[in-house]
Design a protein that fits this description.
Layout (H helix, E strand, L loop, with lengths): L20 H12 L5 H5 L23 E9 L11 H10 L4 E7 L2 H21 L4 E9 L5 E6 L5 H12 L1 H4 L11 H20 L6 E6 L9 H10 L4 E7 L39 E2 L2 E2 H4 L4 H6 L6 E4 L11 E2 L9 H4 L6 E2 L15 E7 L4 H10 L2 E5 L3 E10 L12 E4 L4 E10 L14 E8 L16 E7 L6 E9 L5 E8 L33 E4 L2 E5 L3
Helix pairs in contact: 4-5, 5-7, 7-8
């Protein structure tokens, strides 16, 4: 593999005059983190990456972090229903400021037998052609009895073999293990096979066959077939492998007014319950709220019910790019006798100069996942995801976000996203939220403005007795900070007190354009995201950010 270069904004040899506004802003954030140049290329021996979370002593301190922007859900001609070449996707990702991306192609026999190896050769070339990007190979796994997942490995000699072995042995579509309805004869077998699959991946990492591998559930409530107990079972099978879910799906351009259809919903969340769906999900669970999945957007809902067990479960957002809105390319024609099953690759696309059907944005154009790292490398991105050092935004709402929780008696930096701070009952602590506002118009030509920051707090009660429970009744918005008109970098200081029980805090905010009472009522969430009317969901006019939680463990709780 070619030697990895720093992105331009992190490379001291690139003059500031040669950076765009986004690059200048990101360079400033990197300098403030003390990671510019060689410190970012090599890492810091003084603050090893991800060393402090979960310390047994009181307090705690995490290293300074730089946040890399990425997308773990991108398709190419090696997916049967996509369109673009690797080069088109990588160039778009670079144009919109992505540092890392995962090509996760749909499983198919054509992909397993032919496409995966051809794809790997292209990924190797793409890495050489784009040395300032981190490009991963992945697979979109059809989970037995459930939805899809991103599975991706660290670059190495076995990355493709791992994914191909996994695809053939554990993919629900390829095996015919799709039944997931309650009481069906094959459901228990299929659900157990999904758990076995995650454990198998964990063993490949433990054995050293691959350096690292991660799994993230994709569009979890799109069809309502990922039940709460399945998601808990996947997480508990190997929490270091199955680390989270898409908090917001791709296909965010699906409901642009007048574009796709009068019934379109952001994310293509346009489905009704089926026999395969988990019956206890309400009909409203099949919609998106401010573009986010109901499981994430509902304060006190499914995501919070999992966090309330005291276990990290991360969220992400991404493009799920297959077909970009307003794009003019169409799929090429098949040569005689060829198809996806016997080639594993679509013909290269052809430009028509006429807008073609699509629901997606280019990687990084609208949806961004920010991962905190101490150096620029593949393994650091994966370690950052595993540690939960993640926040997400739509529409380039923010340039930067740094979150720290610390005891008032400590002088250090405190604990950040995904981490755990250990305190005594009654101890005073402070949540520090450092925001860097958007410094430039986004790809739609809008200069985003953050209107408010919501602090969400939930009690940690330990493992649940009902693994299909989806509510966290002690989670709610506890404070809202009006930040309208604030520009540049500023820090919000929010006092917290440790009570009798452990808890977590997470953050959310928006441009303030669309609000309403949250799904579980105004007393829980007075101004949360709301669904849009069918066919009338301009994503650029309703943008949000979400952060992962920080856990506060109270001694004796």
């Amino acid at each position: 593999m070619t030697e990895q270069q720093l992105p331009s904004w992190a490379d001291p040899s690139v003059h500031p005059a040669d950076l765009d506004a986004q690059g200048v802003s990101r360079r400033g954030l990197l300098r403030r983190a003390g990671l510019f140049g060689a410190a970012f290329a090599l890492g810091s021996a003084a603050t090893p990456a991800f060393a402090s979370s979960g310390r047994p002593h009181f307090g705690g301190e995490d290293p300074r972090l730089a946040y890399l922007v990425g997308d773990h859900h991108v398709h190419s001609v090696y997916s049967h229903d996509a369109k673009y070449t690797f080069s088109q996707q990588a160039q778009a990702a670079a144009r919109y400021g992505l540092d890392w991306m995962v090509f996760n192609e749909h499983s198919n026999f054509g992909h397993a037998y032919y496409g995966a190896k051809l794809e790997h050769a292209e990924i190797v070339r793409a890495r050489a052609e784009n040395p300032r990007q981190l490009i991963f190979q992945g697979l979109e796994w059809y989970i037995p009895a459930a939805e899809h997942c991103t599975v991706f490995a660290a670059p190495g000699p076995h990355e493709t073999d791992l994914l191909t072995q996994f695809e053939l042995a554990y993919d629900g579509k390829l095996l015919g293990y799709t039944e997931g309805s309650a009481g069906a004869a094959d459901t228990a077998r299929n659900e157990a096979h999904a758990v076995k699959a995650i454990k198998w991946l964990a063993e490949q990492r433990r054995s050293g066959y691959v350096d690292d591998v991660l799994v993230l559930a994709n569009h979890p409530l799109r069809l309502g077939i990922d039940s709460p107990h399945e998601m808990r079972n996947w997480r508990d099978a190997a929490p270091e492998i199955m680390i989270g879910m898409e908090g917001a799906p791709g296909a965010q351009g699906a409901a642009l007014p007048g574009w796709r259809s009068a019934t379109s919903i952001r994310g293509e969340y346009e489905n009704k319950p089926s026999a395969q769906s988990w019956a206890a999900y309400p009909a409203d669970a099949y919609l998106t709220y401010g573009g986010f999945d109901w499981a994430t957007a509902t304060v006190g809902g499914l995501w919070d019910s999992m966090l309330a067990e005291g276990s990290l479960f991360s969220i992400t957002t991404n493009s799920d790019n297959h077909r970009t809105v307003f794009d003019t390319w169409k799929n090429g024609d098949w040569p005689a006798g060829q198809n996806f099953d016997n080639t594993g690759k679509l013909p290269d696309p052809v430009n028509t100069d006429t807008p073609q059907p699509g629901s997606d944005f280019w990687p990084g154009q609208f949806s961004r996942t920010h991962v905190g790292v101490t150096r620029y490398s593949y393994r650091s991105v994966m370690a950052g995801l595993r540690a939960g050092r993640v926040w997400v935004d739509h529409g380039h709402l923010l340039d930067g976000l740094d979150v720290r929780v610390k005891r008032d008696c400590d002088l250090g930096r405190g604990v950040t996203l995904g981490g755990r701070l250990r305190v005594r009952k009654g101890e005073k602590i402070t949540l520090y939220v450092t925001v860097t506002s958007a410094s430039r118009p986004n790809p739609q030509g809008i200069l985003p403005e953050l209107a408010h920051v919501d602090v969400i707090r939930g009690a940690v009660r330990g493992p649940v007795s009902d693994r299909d429970g989806w509510q966290a009744p002690d989670t709610r918005v506890v404070q809202t900070k009006d930040v309208s008109g604030r520009k540049g970098t500023y820090t919000l200081r929010i006092p917290l007190t440790a009570g009798d029980e452990s808890f977590y805090v997470r953050l959310r905010g928006s441009d303030g354009k669309r609000h309403g009472a949250g799904y579980l009522g105004a007393s829980v969430d007075p101004h949360g995201p709301i669904p849009h009317a069918p066919g009338d969901g301009d994503p650029w006019a309703d943008t949000w950010f979400y952060s992962n939680p920080v856990f506060v463990d109270v001694a004796g709780a």
